[in-house]
């Protein structure tokens, strides 16, 4: 588990380092001029102490951290920013805590119905647990890329692209919207939590049929749209014809037998359902001649 450390300030250690460095230089110069071996030895001791202290100084930038180890044993993580002094024998690993964008590459996968589709996602992530990111996976950035691709493939295979083939599908990739994005975020969280990664946002950035079936699917969508439009037109035309016959009958405007009603219905349906405007034709005779 991650353990957050708060080390001592490094400003006092920095002053000590400067004093030791100056003392080592002065002692070395005075010892060399007078051939005083003691001064030269003291200069060496001061320089070694200076080197030891300077190794313990550590600068942490905002939204960065240092993971500390002591001969292979995890000591803790420093998340505060500033100048600090730690045990010079500690080894440290830099780790960014900033949010990062990942634009996934466009993947070609089969949806739930077996249709090849192209899908890509964009996600925002950051390191939440430095211990897991540093020790539970080899390279957490590569782990994020690989597992995000696996999550996208699993998402695409779990839902149909649209409801053309599955009319009863409660969720589709094309119309799922926030629900699909929420499922994607949960899938990524489950996969990346073992590396201490926090998913802040995940969205589908590209979604389309694969090129080999895109033309056929477009024709199918167009045909479906045409059928739906024609259905609405026919329903409206039938209602208008029924209203016209009722108004003619209620107002005693004209008496129509069954044959004339059939002819009127036929003419009205042609006019109302036709794609082009009807051209009026005057009948100089009668309906029966």
Automatic annotation (TrEMBL):
Keywords tagged on the record: Membrane, Transmembrane, Transmembrane helix
**InterPro entries from the entry?**
Band_7, Band_7/SPFH_dom_sf
Q: Where are the transmembrane segments?
A: 12-31, 37-60
CDD domains registered for this protein in UniProt: SPFH_like_u2 (cd03402)
Q: Which Pfam family would be a valid example here?
A: Band_7
Please report the record's description of how this protein sits within the membrane: Single-pass membrane protein
Name a single GO cellular component: membrane
Q: Please give the chief subcellular localization of this protein.
A: membrane
Localization: Membrane
| Gene3D superfamilies xref list | Band 7 domain
Question: Which residues belong to any copy of the Band domain?
Answer: 55-221
Source organism's superkingdom? Answer: Bacteria
Annotated protein name in UniProt: SPFH domain / Band 7 family protein
> What is the organism of origin for this protein?
Chryseobacterium polytrichastri
């Amino acid at each position: 588990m991650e353990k957050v450390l708060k080390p001592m300030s490094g400003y006092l250690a920095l002053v000590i380092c400067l004093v030791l460095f100056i003392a080592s230089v002065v002692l070395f110069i005075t010892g060399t001029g007078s051939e005083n071996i003691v001064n030269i030895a003291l200069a060496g001791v001061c320089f070694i102490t200076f080197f030891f202290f300077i190794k313990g100084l550590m600068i942490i930038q905002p939204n960065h951290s240092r993971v500390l180890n002591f001969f292979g044993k995890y000591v803790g993580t420093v998340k505060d920013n500033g100048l600090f002094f730690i045990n010079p024998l500690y080894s440290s690993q830099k780790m960014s805590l900033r949010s990062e964008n990942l634009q996934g590459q466009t993947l070609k996968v089969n949806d739930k119905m077996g249709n090849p589709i192209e899908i890509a996602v964009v996600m925002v992530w950051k390191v939440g647990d430095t211990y897991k990111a540093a020790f539970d996976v080899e390279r957490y950035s590569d782990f994020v890329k690989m597992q995000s691709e696996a999550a996208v493939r699993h998402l695409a295979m779990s839902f149909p692209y649209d409801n053309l083939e599955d009319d009863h599908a409660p969720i589709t990739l094309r119309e799922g919207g926030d629900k699909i994005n929420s499922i994607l975020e949960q899938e990524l969280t489950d996969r990346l939590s073992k590396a201490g990664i926090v998913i802040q946002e995940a969205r589908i950035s590209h979604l389309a049929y694969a090129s080999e079936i895109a033309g056929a699917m477009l024709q199918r969508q167009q045909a479906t749209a045409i059928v739906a439009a024609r259905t609405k037109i026919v329903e409206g035309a039938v209602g208008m014809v029924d209203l016209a016959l009722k108004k003619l009958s209620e107002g005693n405007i004209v008496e129509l037998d069954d044959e004339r009603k059939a002819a009127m219905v036929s003419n009205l349906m042609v006019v109302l359902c036709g794609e082009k405007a009807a051209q009026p034709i005057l009948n100089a005779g009668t309906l029966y001649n």
